[in-house]
Specification:
Largest sheet: 6 strands, antiparallel
Strand order of the largest sheet: 1-2-3-8-9-10
Helix content: 10-25%
Structural class: alpha+beta
Number of helices: 5
Strand content: 15-25%
Order of helices and strands: HEEHEEHHEEEEEEH
Number of domains: 1
C-alpha cells in the first residue's frame, strides 16, 4: 500500500467545525512524525490501562521501506511517544474513511485490555507504519502497518483526553517553542503545537503521482 495521497495543499477554512479545520494540519503532523517508523517499545505509564508507545525508525529497515519513506525519515524531528489513554484495539484493516464506518469500529472496541490484546500489539513491533490518519468526524487515531493491520485508538473519551503524541526534547531542540505535541482533547477534537517553521504542505508534492 502506498502512503495516503492528500491531494491538495492543506488550507485553513473559516467554515465548518474546529475539528474539521484542524484535522488536515494534524494529519500532516502525524505523517511527519510517524510514517515509515515502527513501534519500538511499549511502556506502562503508572495509570490503569494507560500505555505509552515508543515510536522510532527501525534499526534494520528493509530496502523497500527505506526507499518508500526516506522523505519522512530524513525529516523526522526525533523520537515520538504515543500515549493511549482510552479504548484501543488492533484491527485486521483500517476502517474506510467514513464517519459511520469509523464509529462502528470505535463502538466495537473492548472495554478492558487483556494479555491477548497486548500480544496483538506486540506483533506489530517490527512493522513499518505505512498510513496514519484521524477520523472524519471525531479524533479517532488510526495507524496502519505494512501487514495491513490497524491500531485503532478511540478518539472521544468524554471529559478526558483519549490519546496524545509528542516528540522527546533533544539537545538540538530544547526550546519549548520547538515542541511537537498533538493531543486529543475532551469532545474528540485535537490541540496541536508545532515549531513556527513547520509547513503542513511539506509532503504534498511528494505524495502526488509523478509522470
Amino acid at each position: 500500500m502506498e502512503p495516503p495521497d492528500s491531494g491538495d495543499s492543506v488550507t485553513t477554512s473559516s467554515s465548518g467545525s474546529t475539528y474539521e479545520r484542524d484535522r488536515p494540519y494534524a494529519e500532516a503532523m502525524l505523517r511527519r512524525l510517524c510514517l515509515g517508523a515502527e513501534i519500538a517499545g511499549v511502556y506502562w505509564s503508572g495509570f490503569p490501562d494507560v500505555l505509552t508507545l515508543y515510536i522510532d525508525d527501525s534499526l534494520f529497515p528493509d530496502k523497500e521501506a527505506r526507499d518508500r519513506f526516506s522523505h519522512y525519515q530524513n525529516l523526522r524531528p526525533g523520537e515520538c511517544w504515543l500515549m493511549l489513554e482510552h479504548k484501543w484495539a488492533v484491527l485486521d484493516a483500517m476502517p474506510f474513511a467514513d464517519a459511520e464506518h469509523e464509529q462502528a469500529a470505535a463502538d466495537s472496541l473492548p472495554e478492558a485490555i487483556t494479555y491477548s490484546h497486548l500480544g496483538e500489539l506486540a506483533s506489530l513491533h517490527d512493522q513499518s507504519i505505512v498510513a496514519i490518519r484521524l477520523g472524519i468526524a471525531v479524533g479517532h487515531l488510526m495507524l496502519q502497518f505494512d501487514s495491513g493491520r490497524c491500531l485503532f485508538i478511540h478518539g472521544d473519551h468524554g471529559m478526558y483526553e483519549a490519546w496524545e503524541i509528542r516528540v522527546t526534547p533533544t539537545r538540538e531542540h530544547p526550546d519549548p517553542e520547538k515542541r511537537w505535541l498533538l493531543v486529543n482533547i475532551p469532545g474528540g477534537e485535537v490541540a496541536k503545537w508545532t515549531p513556527d517553521d513547520f509547513d503542513p504542505n511539506f509532503d504534498t508534492e511528494w505524495q502526488r503521482p509523478h509522470e
